[in-house]
């Protein structure tokens, strides 16, 4: 579960019922804890609980129709918090400023739960929400108006003949930040029945979805999201991040294989766990922006896991230097970065007022980060050999090689020529997962670019130079 999700701890059902009276009749006593709870297999209890949480914790007054899906708030909130982290992924290395964030919710349902949660969490967010079902559309519109959200949640009625991503096709001059989607899980009513019979144990909660919400005849969720991928190929950068929830592990493999077949290599896979419920999400982009591994890969996944082969390549490299303190490591890193030429290097101080799925900065030095930009591999042996030749020829002509004297802190690379942007910071990490001790490490984060090998080459070069200097110092005994 996301670290910012307040429902990591079970809510106080008595307090919720006291604040939201319709929940009171559904309270029961837990025989083990003797605390008040609800029967999650009771349809009415589920609906009143969702209404109570939204009312008490988000100030949202919601009407959930009896014949449409009742969305559990904690699981939906995990998805929104992940999207928040994506939107704020590089705030710590950029000139952060509040800005309008535009999202699209595909198939918002009768409750428009995702736009409501997102808008309640951030006043700068706004949505276009689409809905196919007539009854869900009218109920969602009623809920939007009742909460005075018409200016921030624009509801659009769509038909089966419309493209899934129709809002992007219509808004040619508007760029959106993300698409979210919770697609129909199943391909048919027969598949729903088969899924229920295949389960060894009965479900812990009642299923409240109608067929129109649960079934997509052209392949279920995998078919639905596959169509989103195909449509996004034509739309490209009209949206920065295309994402969708998935309810089956097999669907993750299907979507990732499609992305790879279409040469869409900048993608992400994550997992949401809420009690015994496990869901996944995939995302992809046609931009060169790169996100940290904790957002793009499922953390701590072992190579034997069935999904491991579908994880994207790493954008974050962590190199441990366990024999040195963080202040010495930072000093040596600074020293070597100042020796690099042909690169723009700036030191920034990280924002530390947000706890994301990446976790808070673990040490004081991790709040100081270097941002590097380059248009050429200036650290390779071939480049340095060629530069020495250019410098020698300039000296023979009696000319000065001005560029070689530009310190990285003043060197500027035009934005359109940047091929690599990455950050480096000193962090403290667990040396062994079971041990309480921590060690110093360099964290290299790819931020922007198309050439992955260029990033890997730079990170390896800097780490190798730092390691050599540290070893020399420890050999002299001055560490």
Written overview of the protein:
By secondary structure, the protein is of the alpha/beta class. The chain is 34% helix and 20% strand. The chain has 14 helices and 14 strands. The strands form three sheets. A seven-stranded mixed sheet has the order 5-4-3-6-7-9-8, with helices on both faces. A hairpin with a 7-residue loop joins strand 13 and strand 14. It is elongated and about 85 Å long. About 1% of the residues have low confidence.
Q: What are the segments in which pLDDT stays under 50 over at least 5 consecutive residues?
A: 358-364
How much is the radius of gyration in Å? 26 Å
Characterize the overall form: elongated
Please give the count of helices.
Answer: 14
Structural class: alpha/beta
Query: Which range does the strand content fall in?
Result: 15-25%
Calculate the terminal CA-CA distance, rounded to whole Å.
Answer: 41 Å
| Order of the strands making up the biggest sheet | 5-4-3-6-7-9-8
**Mean model confidence by pLDDT:** 86
What's the structural blueprint in terms of helices and strands?
Elements (H helix, E strand, L loop, with lengths): L12 H7 L7 E3 L6 E3 L4 H16 L14 H15 L13 E6 L6 H9 L3 E7 L2 H13 L6 E5 L8 H5 L5 E6 L7 H10 L12 H4 L5 H16 L3 E8 L2 H13 L5 E8 L2 E8 L8 H4 L19 E5 L5 H12 L5 E7 L18 E7 L6 H16 L23 E11 L7 E12 L2 H25 L3
Parallel strand pairs: 3-4, 3-6, 4-5, 6-7
Antiparallel strand pairs: 1-2, 7-9, 8-9, 10-14, 11-12, 12-13, 13-14
Q: What's a quick, concise take on this entry?
A:
The chain is of the alpha/beta class and 479 residues long.
